[in-house]
Specification:
Elements lengths: L38 H4 L6 H20 L3 H21 L5 E5 L3 H11 L12 H8 L5 E9 L3 E8 L4 E5 L2 E5 L5 E2 L12 E3 L3 H13 L2 H6 E7 L3 E6 L4 E3 L5 H15 L1 H4 L3 E6 L2 E5 L8 H6 L1
Parallel strand pairs: 1-3, 4-7, 7-8, 10-11
Antiparallel strand pairs: 2-3, 4-5, 5-6, 8-9, 9-10, 11-12
Helix pairs in contact: 2-3, 4-5
Length: 302
């Protein structure tokens, strides 16, 4: 997939083709930037495999001289040679022109591209692939990453993306989490209003176990507003009308089956209630919703 990369004042989006887009023009006065391009369009004529290997070998030799030598003159000569090699890299086309990101959603691409720290026209053989991989795996979207250098001018980042699973609300903040409870800080919770909401300390780590159980009961899901973690040991289900279902610390599925049976008999989920206590497997306690007496609301508001 394509992504916007650092170095341009504004992304210049182009039509997608085969999961990538062609590079846009760099912004004036800033380091030249590049945008993703198709791998097929990134191959350039004029650079043979022999010349590429020769230049790569020169880079290794120069780096070795600079590291092992204690002679200032040798170091100076190595620096001068390195400068010449960089110029050769540029002249021969061995410079970054294209970044291709694979396996990422459109929401994740920009975050991954920014984390790469890559710029257009930097020598491609200078890119530390292992350091690049580590930077990419620091992005919340990314479960794992693989980085490949394709000479003469393409860097490919292939990722396994974390799935969006729920929104976790805690201490006044909301985060999207994956199906292991791992946070995805870059994901905007407002864009994932369709995800279930889990609330409270420890709700992120406990959510992967409870949500499949609750989803197996469609009538409950239809009326559910949020799952609230209580004392990091059990759940309350907060319904959209403000009513509450108290689940036990274990055996949640059996408790919800009891609720399904009760709902089939009395349609209690549709009619409404104040609270249903399912914590005791031998007794389902239902507190009906209080009905205000005529004139009570007016008197309270006076």
């Amino acid at each position: 997939m394509a992504a916007v990369v650092r170095g341009a004042a504004r992304s210049t989006a182009q039509p997608r083709a085969q999961g990538a887009t062609k590079a846009g023009a760099p912004a004036r006065g800033k380091p030249p930037a590049y945008a993703p391009g198709k791998l097929t369009a990134a191959r350039r004529a004029g650079l043979t495999q022999v010349s590429a290997v020769a230049i790569a070998a020169a880079v290794v030799v120069v780096a070795g001289l600079a590291i092992v030598s204690t002679d200032a003159r040798v170091r100076r000569y190595a620096a001068e040679i390195a400068t010449g090699v960089d110029q050769q890299l540029t002249a021969q086309g061995l410079r970054v022109q294209t970044l291709t990101i694979q396996g990422a959603s459109s929401a994740a691409e920009n975050d991954i591209a920014r984390a790469s720290g890559l710029y257009r026209d930097e020598p491609i053989l200078h890119v530390d692939l292992e350091a690049l991989r580590r930077r990419i795996e620091q992005v919340g979207w990314v479960k794992s990453a693989r980085v490949v250098r394709l000479l003469p001018d393409t860097i490919v980042i292939a990722i396994t993306q974390r799935p969006t699973f729920a929104v976790w609300e805690h201490a006044g903040h909301a985060l999207v989490i994956d199906n292991t409870g791992h946070p995805i800080p870059e994901a905007d919770p407002a864009r994932f209003a369709d995800l279930p909401l889990v609330v409270g300390d420890g709700a992120d780590q406990a959510a992967p176990a409870i949500l499949p159980i609750v989803r197996a009961h469609p009538q409950v899901m239809q009326h559910l507003d949020a799952l609230v973690r209580v004392d990091e040991r059990r759940w309350d289900l907060r319904m959209r009308d403000g009513s509450l279902i108290q689940l036990p610390a274990s055996g949640e599925d059996a408790a919800l089956i009891q609720l399904d049976q009760l709902d089939q008999k009395s349609r209690i989920l549709e009619l409404g209630f104040e609270r249903i206590d399912l914590r005791d497997p031998d007794l389902v306690a239902v507190r009906p919703r209080e009905i205000a007496a005529p004139g009570q609301l007016v008197a309270n508001g006076a």
